[in-house]
Amino acid sequence: MTRAMAVLTAVTVTVSAAAGPVRADADELGGYERQRLVWHTCQRGSADQVGAELDQAGATCTELTVPLDYARPSGRTITLALSRLAATDTTRRVGVLLLNTGGPGAPGMPDVLPIRQWMGDVGATFDLIGLDPRFVGRSTPLNCGWPTGTWTRSAGPDRATFDRLVAFERDLAARCARQNADLLPHVTTRNTARDMDLLRAVLSESKLSYLGYSYGTYLGAVYTQMFPERADRFVLDSAVDPASYGARVVREAGPANEVALRDWAAWAARHHDRYGLGRTGRQVLAVVDAIHAAAARRPLRVGQYRVDRQSLPYLLLNRLGDDRDETHADLAETVRVLRRAAASGSATPTASLADTMAFLFSGVESATGSVQAAILCGDVPVPRDPEEYWRDITQHRASEPRFGELTRAVSPCAFWPQQPRERPTVVHNAVPALIVQSTGDTRTIYRAGQAMHRALTGSRLLTLRNARIHGVFGNYGNTCVDGVVIAYLADGKLPTDDVDCVGTSSV
After folding, report:
1. Which residues, 6 or more positions from 193, have their beta carbon under 8 angstroms from its beta carbon?
2. Which is nearest to 2 in space by CA: 247, 356, 453, 427?
């Protein structure tokens, strides 16, 4: 559901330096709760395509004022931007359905458009709200001035490349510290949950319904823990394990991606006449490994960019989250380009690959990676000794030969200027929720969804088997999953037991 790899567990770390829960006096927040929202058109200038599409669909937009620091509500304020597609079936109106499609750090304002379509007739019974969370998109945006759109890089094949990664991540953290020191302590999931509940109050709703994907499942779970009596119909799709959420959340995803790459290789072998990558899965994987070896010797020149051994795994893994033919074909074309660059010294990228490389190698989307890191680093502490990451990578090279050095790599959080202000949220409650998970998910692996199910004891787990997809409801088009989710949103009644649906993957 997000453009970049969802860097969504962590080892147990002592959090003695963290402060206790942030508290605010109810009277001080009362002024915020009584604010009047002024709804207006969404487009900002002729180049604002998202705003134009929202206006065309009949959405309206507004801004919500919230405290920067909930412990000091009378201090500095920030503004959050949101969109609304109002319920058109007013006689059966359920209430507000807030949307979050993950990241962390993905803008939410555009989400009302596809999700209204995915929901069918039941979508007309909700006011759909797309919120840009604090410091994301139009909501007092945070930008650290990074030379990349993501901090995700591989540690590479040896100690020298690992040391270069450490220097790279240290520099990214330092840039954030220099440019946003006053904001970083307040970039947290708990504060976003507080913003959500303040929005609920401003909208005069007694309860809030919610649909969250990927990181959005963690945000939704935190909300149920902080405001359990205010949660109505909650759908958590492609869930994280709330006990191991943090900057190392994909640490255990290496094996799932190794399996996904083998599955893709088998697909590519069946389409050898089109892509010429090999007639067996083993031959296709040999091509991939040869590209890795070539990139380790010398960066591959692809268009205006240089793909080295530390960026290559990202380009591959980023296309393994979906088992549909279109995504398989995109990866096959990517591998063809990279093989050409390895063999002849340069190659012209496909439009899709060029777009991904611009995200990876330029600062055009610096804000995306900046706020993602700020949220993860502000939520949960990580080990700060680079040697711990080196040992972890070394111990898993044999079992995760292509992706372990990426999923287990060090992040800017190891060098973040301060520890999280609050202790990580312990999620354990009986708030009803519907958790949706595919068995082949390569971002938030299946056992993460099972862990969320155990943490939310009143939940039901809706499993899509024989499928590899991150972000199932609506996005994947499985009629069984979509029907169960829509039925729950329509009547608020969870299935009596956990439910299995079956995908159509041929890999």
Report:
1. 219, 222, 223, 226, 227
2. 356
Structure tokens at 88: 């058109």
SS3 252: coil
Q: Is 246 exposed, middle or buried (0-12, 13-18, 19+ CB in 10 A)?
A: buried
pLDDT, tens only, 184-228: 999 999 999 999 999 999 999 999 999 999 999 999 999 999 999
Q: What are the structural domains of the chain?
A: 26-141+183-243+424-502 (3.40.50.1820)
Cα atoms in the Cβ-side hemisphere of radius 13 Å centred on 81: 22
pLDDT band at 367 (very low <50, low <70, confident <90, very high): very high
* Contacts of 305 by beta carbon, 8 Å cutoff, 6+ apart: 349, 357, 360, 361
Q: In this predicted model, what pLDDT tens digit does every residue of 447-497 receive, in sequence order?
A: 999 999 999 999 999 999 999 999 999 999 999 999 999 999 999 999 999
Residues 185-210, buried b or exposed e (16+ Cβ, 10 A)? bbbbbbbbbbbbbbbbbbbebeebbb
Q: Which amino acid is at 354?
A: A
C-alpha distances in angstroms, 374 versus 19, 96, 101, 143, 185?
Answer: 18, 28, 18, 10, 9
Radius of gyration of the chain (CA): 22
Helix (H, G, I), strand (E, B) or coil at 325: helix
CA–CA gap between residue 226 and residue 229 (Å, rounded):
9
Determine the Cα–Cα distance for residues 198 and 6; give it in Å rounded to an integer: 27
* Structure-token pair, residue 148: 């990349």
| pLDDT of res. 22 | 60
Name residue 197's amino acid. D
In which region does residue 497 sit, left (phi positive, over 0), alpha (psi from -120 to 50) or beta (all else)?
Answer: beta
- Looking at residue 41, what is its pLDDT? 98
Q: Could you give the residue ranges of the DSSP H alpha helices within 350-415?
A: 351-361, 366-379, 386-395, 404-407
Do 100 and 220 meet the contact criterion of CB atoms below 8 Å apart?
yes
Helix (H, G, I), strand (E, B) or coil at 314: helix
3-state secondary structure of 266: helix
Question: CA–CA separation, 343 vs 65, rounded Å?
Answer: 56
